[in-house]
Specification:
By secondary structure, this protein is of the alpha/beta class. The protein is built from nine helices and six strands. It has a single domain, classed as Rossmann fold (3-Layer(aba) Sandwich). Strands 3-4-2-5-1-6 form a six-stranded mixed beta sheet, with helices on both faces.
Length: about 240
């Protein structure tokens, strides 16, 4: 497993560390381990609930809506455009029915709202925050078709990334094995399977372009061989 930390020289949110990577690359596993080992030591872990990331831990529905509108007020045009791009970016498969489209519409739009709520929640916490399913990861939900560098650069600019980012990668054969297993369990089973498989394939295609874009953005890049070394570095440099 590789942990690649990207630190933005002009980052305003250095306390927020966002985990980014392909599905089943180990993001949640690492975050649970951080939570188990370092909880109560000035570190907060925010874990999502898969593609139904409609929850913000410790917040009720009204609080989540308030958090979203707080984000919206900061960048209204950006957020409107992101929702517009999301809702015109669909995958077409032969066996899709109206029920499938309605379900996927709800998942995608509620997901993006939750991402902005979670981002605001993370900014409110006066401690180091490690989280998955924040701004970078939302690109996979917004752009479900295969995209090009120009389109993905536009999304990244609209997201206005200011968190530090950790890219998580594992051996591709192992990630694919985990992905195949996930097709048989969890909330994925409630989606149109052909749609889901096409989306997963497109994620891998888009990921390679996204990684190239963010590595070219002038981040300070630091690689870690172990989780322990990574946490030690974060605690020292915050």
């Amino acid at each position: 497993m590789a942990l690649i930390l990207l630190e933005g020289a002009n980052s305003e949110n250095k306390m927020v560390v966002e985990f980014f990577g392909l599905p089943k690359s180990g993001k949640s596993t690492i975050l649970r381990e951080i939570d188990r080992k370092y909880s109560g030591k000035g570190i907060e872990v925010m874990l999502s609930k898969g593609y139904y990331v409609s929850s913000v831990k410790g917040e009720g529905l009204f609080d989540k809506i308030k958090l979203f509108f707080r984000a919206f007020v900061k960048k209204p045009l950006n957020i409107i455009k992101l929702f517009f791009i999301l809702n015109k970016n669909w995958i077409s498969v032969k066996d899709m029915i109206v029920k499938d489209y309605v379900k996927i519409f709800f998942i995608r739009n509620s997901y993006l709202m939750a991402v902005f709520s979670r981002q605001e929640k993370a900014l409110k916490l006066n401690k180091i925050v490690f989280a998955d399913e924040l701004l970078m990861q939302s690109i996979f939900m917004i752009m479900q078709r295969k995209s090009n560098e120009r389109e993905l650069k536009e999304i990244i600019e609209l997201l206005d990334l200011r968190n530090n980012i950790v890219i998580i990668e594992i051996d591709e054969k192992e990630r694919e094995r985990r992905s195949q297993k996930s097709l048989r369990e969890g909330p994925v089973r409630k989606l149109n399977m052909n749609y889901f498989k096409e989306w997963r394939k497109n994620q891998y295609y888009n990921y390679k372009i996204i990684k190239k874009i963010i590595l070219d953005k002038g981040f300070k890049v630091k690689k870690f061989k172990s989780l322990k070394d990574f946490i030690k570095y974060e605690l020292k440099h915050q």
